[in-house]
Amino acid sequence: MATLVAGRFVPSPGALSWHPEGESVRLGWQSHGGAGRLHPARAFPMRLVVEVPDGAARVSAVVMRGVFAACAAVRHEPLGAIGAVLLVRGGEGVAPFQLNLVNGRHYGDGGDGVSVERINGDGTSLRQVGVVEGADGENYRVDELRIEFGRVRSVSGLEFRDMGTPASFAVFEVLFEAEVGAVCPFRGHGEKISLAELGSIVRLRDWGRFDASVAQLRRGILESGDLDEGKGSALTFLAVVAAAILDFGGDREMHRFQLDAARELDALTDPRQVADRAAALADQLLEGYLPNRKSDSGKVIDRAIRYIESRFTQEMDDDDVASEVGLSTSHFRALFRERVGVPFHKYILNMRLEKARQEILTTELAIREISEGMGFVSSAHFSRAFSQRFGVSPKVMRENSNSDANTG
Known about the structure:
The protein is of the alpha+beta class. It is built from twelve helices and twelve strands.
């Protein structure tokens, strides 16, 4: 069975981000470019490395979604120019796959307002999937570039190299069409929320995404149709939520809750019953942690959190966000703290640290790169803040994770 599996990469500070309707925000990586040496895009990097997640070693296609490209109009860059090279690294003994991205074929002027849908005849196709507002206030197409290999290939990674032309590419998603077997609903494939993210979502009190994760759990149980697998998924989900609550001051009654939940689920005889009861137990688990999480004011703060999530690597203050959701700054501050338990500036810091923790545990990127990608002014500042939140330094957390993987 083929499925789309999301590759992992670190976003660029200050890059565009994309928020598809009804889905989570996609933070972007943006490449060097711009129509002149003083253009802001000249500060962006020229190389993106994408890691292939577990379960995606056998790949038949790559799907990239992003702005392809800004500053690519003919007045800036001629048709036929090679703006970037895509290099798909093979496994041991497998030659890499290389594709030169050509202006007028694989990309074009993303701000021309013209919808695109075409098959290029070289195994690639391009179609519009959305719109995003640029830093200049202009709208840019979000396109999906699909690259077919023609056969299943062994893939170990992907590299995107900007060739230094004016075109500036923004990448929001890199998906590998991989042959995988049936998997847990929380493996983080495609657009799914992973178990690693779930703990962060609870610690950050991001209840909009928490509700999305519960819906994902229900779908996974129903689609599987396997009673025992569904019970196992539900108990794993509840255990991760309970552990996150315990980390930040939750009552030790959580242990009793998990035991009672296991007994309840064990008595059920139908996957739909398991799915419904698991969702109810998840809500029940959070009632003591945040009793008013579904209030009307909470919905406004959830909108604010979505806005913050799309820009968390950038400098922002609570005045900006309050204006975005239509509240006075003082009212916003009060509602925000009531909803998430910490002041605005502390929440931004916590979000950066949680995202950095995920990168440390799931990628091989250098800690310095992760620190810069999350918007920290220095590695020393990042390390101090990380140690205060998680009790260990970034380096020690990675070493412990690698040690667990080697002995597991």
